[in-house]
Request: fold
Amino acid sequence: LVEVSSTTTNRELRYSIAAQLSLSSPEGYGLYMKATHKMVSLDEDQYFFDNLRLPADVPKKGKKVKEVNPSNVLFLVIFRRKLWFNVNPGKDLVADLTFHFPQEVPRYLRGYHSCTKEDMFNLGGLLFRVAVDSDRSQFVMIPRMLNELIPADQIQIMLPEEWKKNIISSYNRQSGITVQEAKIAFLTEISNWPTFGSSFFDVKQTCEPDYPPILWFTISKKGVSLIDPKTKELQVMHPFNRIIEYSSRGNFFQMTIRTLVKSVIFVCETSQASTIEDLIKSYVRMYEEQKQITRPRKNMFF
Reply:
C-alpha cells in the first residue's frame, strides 16, 4: 500500500515503492498502467492521478462507443525492472528475488538466449530445485516439467528421458544449496551472456535485404540489436549514441542510425512499436542524466 496525493509524480511514486521494498536503488525500475487489454509505461514527470484515464480504443464501424465510468474500471499498476544497468546478481537480494529472477526466467524459457547443452543441463537443475527444493521424489515429474526447465525451442533436440538424466545429474551436483541460492546461481550464470537483461520484440522488416524479414528487435543497456530468431545470430548492433532519431506511429517503428559514411533509416512493423520507442527513450534519458552527474562542475571561484 502506497499513499498517493494529487501532487505525487510517477517518479516520486517509484521512489516510494523502492523504499518500501528496501531496494538498494530505485533507479532502473519503471511504472506501468494496465487497463482492459492495454498496458502503457507511465511518464516519470506526470502526476500519477493524470494517468487514471482509459486508453482510447478505436471503435468498430457502425458501432457506438459506450460511455465508461473510470471508477468502474480496474487499473493495475505494475512496478518492475525496466532498464538493466548495474544489475549484478548477489548485490541486491531483494531485487534479485523479487524482480530479476521472475523477469529473466520467462525470457530464458522462450528461447531468446543462445546457450549450450551444458548450460541447459545446469540451469535446468537449478530451476528444478527452485520448483521442488530438496524433494527427490519429484524426479519422475521432470519429463512433464520440461517447459518449465528448458527453452521451448530446445526441448525437441533430446528425448525427455535424456533431459531427465542430465537434469538430475546437475541437480545432484548442486546439492546443499537452498532455493534462494539456486535463483541467484541462475542469474549469475546467465548474467555473463550478451543478451542478459535484454527486451525482445518480434518485428517484420523489408528495408534491409541482407537481414531476414522476421527479426528480434532487441534492446539492452548497450543499444539496439537485430537478431535472426532462427539462428540467434546477431545481424547488427547499434549503440544508443548512433541512433540519432527514432519514432513510432501505429504499428510501425522507425529509427535513423548514423554511420561513418551516411545515415541509414531502419523501419519495422510490430504491435509493440510504442513500447520500443518508450524503452529506447528511457535508456537515452538515463545516459544523458548520467552524463550530467559525471560532468565536472565549472569552478565558480577565480
Remarks:
- The radius of gyration is 22 Å.
